[in-house]
Amino acid sequence: MTRLEQMLGESPYVAYLYGYPHKTAYRPFTPPLSLESVWAEERRDALFLYFHVPFCEMRCGFCNLFTAAGPKQDVVDGYLGALERETQRVKEALGRASFARLALGGGTPTLLDVAGLNKVFDLAEQVLGADPRNIPVSVEVSPETVDAQKLRVLRERGTDRVSMGVQSFIEAEVAAVKRPQKTAQVEAALDLIRSTGFPTLNLDLIYGMEGQTPESFLYSLRETLRFSPEEIYLYPLYVRPLTFLGKKARAWDDLRLSLYRTGRDFLLSQGYTQVSMRMFRAKHAPDAGGPVYRCQEDGMVGLGCGARSYTGAVHYSSEYAVGSREVRNIIASYSARTAESFGEVGYGFRLDDGERRRRFMLLSLLAEGVDLAAYRARFGAEVLEDFPELLELEAHGLGRRDATGLRLTAAGVERSDLIGPWLHSDGVRALSSEYAWR
Questions:
Q1: Distance between CA 395 and CA 28 in Å, rounded?
Q2: Phi, psi at residue 102, to the nearest 5°?
Q3: With 0-12 CB in 10 A as exposed, 13-18 as middle and 19+ as buried, what is 227?
Q4: What is the three-state SS of 330-387?
Q5: Coil vs helix vs strand at 301
Q6: Does one domain contain both 27 and 15?
Q7: Do 103 and 138 contact (CB within 8 A), yes or no?
Q8: Are 123 and 149 members of one domain?
Q9: DSSP classification of residue 297
Q10: Which of 257, 281, 305 is the C-terminal boundary of a domain?
Q11: Could you tell me which residue ranges the Radical SAM core domain spans (predicted)?
């Protein structure tokens, strides 16, 4: 029995792969690398810019993101001061650069007040030279932290996409994942977002919560469509180490695959196009223009504690934690850093040629599919010779080859969270398995 065959006999929900290698494969660099050396060989004509705001009003029971709940204002102010020092030092290292996309995530960027939001946009525009009004800009928001004034600021500063994690329109379901959310507040926030005129609204829903059924999931989907979102993401619930649900360690029936199929089929019947296992796009969604960010590509400048940056040879970030004390300590250390210290890259992953090829193959496969000619042009090799294991996908009905490439079938798409981890290199798999969660 092959490893894939063994995994296919187990849960299809192994891990969500939105980047490769996973952050649990990052380790300290000894000695640290200079920022200039890390970016020396990277093109600077169409970089992607990301600011991380590691604060939320609360931590949901399923969340393992790098964020601290309910920070005091002096902590936020100290963080923004360090973010400015880091941005200025990164600008010094990058030199002349232009940016094709901008995103603010977290955490919840709209936990910041109006002055804080303007501060982040000023760093992007005035320090780094990005032009938010002429490139796609996406911002994560939450029902508890948006108001009319903040939304006006986001729109005036160039934001054309807002994303909100609703998770469910049934209060008992979100309460089961320790999210004390009122549906009336969600609906009021969505009405406010729509009235502000953002071209793209994305809503996230979760399936697999305690007490959820296909009927209740369809109810949330129908409620979602009342707001005509241009994008919808459907996320399976994961119970991760050190989260509230992870500590609870509840044994529950795994209905996620049937719930996924219920949601997928419904959205397809409503005219949405499936882009990936998680993402669905409406017919009325605008063409954002410019290059679409794809994780296969490099040139990601991540700023802030918890943000990741990608160059061809090096991925790096601050250290990662989930536990509240450890997160607070990492944020405090970040906030105390000097401008000079931001010139050192101390934690991340070096990608050799094999890992670069694997990253491109894997993330292409989980999106639009592996283009044989694109792989050949980039690496001077054939993807099926570099990764013959891909032929197993076809043998199991999970992939389909044609003259141009290899793409996942519907059965393969719904097993993306199994196929991704299956394709990890032995080295990355070993590092991730040795990672000590904290």
A1: 40
A2: -135, 135
A3: middle
A4: HHHHHHCCCCHHHHEEEEEEECCHHHHHHHHHHHHHCCCCEEHHHHHHHHCCCHHHHC
A5: strand
A6: no
A7: yes
A8: yes
A9: S
A10: 281
A11: 41-278
Question: Are 35 and 337 a contacting pair, CB within 8 Å?
Answer: no
Phi-psi region of 271 (alpha: psi -120 to 50; beta: other; left: phi over 0): left
The answer to whether residues 49 and 117 belong to one domain is yes
The answer to whether residues 438 and 242 touch, using CB atoms and an 8 Å cutoff, is: yes
Would you give per-residue pLDDT tens digits along the chain (438 residues)?
A: 999 999 999 989 998 888 899 999 999 999 999 999 999 999 999 999 999 999 988 767 667 677 888 899 999 999 999 999 999 999 999 999 999 999 999 889 999 999 999 999 999 999 999 999 999 999 999 999 999 999 999 999 999 999 999 999 999 999 988 888 999 999 999 999 999 999 999 999 999 988 899 999 999 999 999 999 999 999 999 875 444 444 455 544 578 999 999 999 999 999 999 999 999 999 999 985 555 545 456 899 999 999 999 999 999 999 888 788 999 999 999 999 999 999 999 999 999 999 999 999 999 999 999 999 999 999 999 999 999 999 999 999 999 999 999 999 999 999 999 999 999 999 999 999 998 776
**Domain region containing 230:** 23-281
Sign of torsion over alpha carbons 142, 144, 147, 150: negative
Domain stops at, among 245, 264, 281: 281
What is the model's pTM? 0.94
Any idea what the CATH number is for the domain that residue 414 is in? Answer: 1.10.10.920
For the chain, how many structural domains are there in total? 2
In a domain, 192, yes or no: yes
Give the CATH number of the domain where residue 28 resides: 3.20.20.70
Q: Name every residue whose Cβ is closer than 8 Å to that of residue 382 and which is 6 or more positions away in sequence.
A: 372, 375, 376
Q: Give yes or no: residues 357 and 398 share one domain.
A: yes
| Domain shared by 15 and 76, yes or no | no
Reading the block at residue 386, the tokens are: 């570099």
Considering the domain architecture, whether residues 256 and 176 belong to the same structural domain is answered as yes
Angle between helices 148-156 and 183-196 (to 10 degrees): 40
Q: How many CB atoms lie within 10 A of CB 203?
A: 25
Q: Distance between CA 369 and CA 405 in Å, rounded?
A: 7
Confirm if 277 and 416 have CB atoms less than 8 A apart.
yes
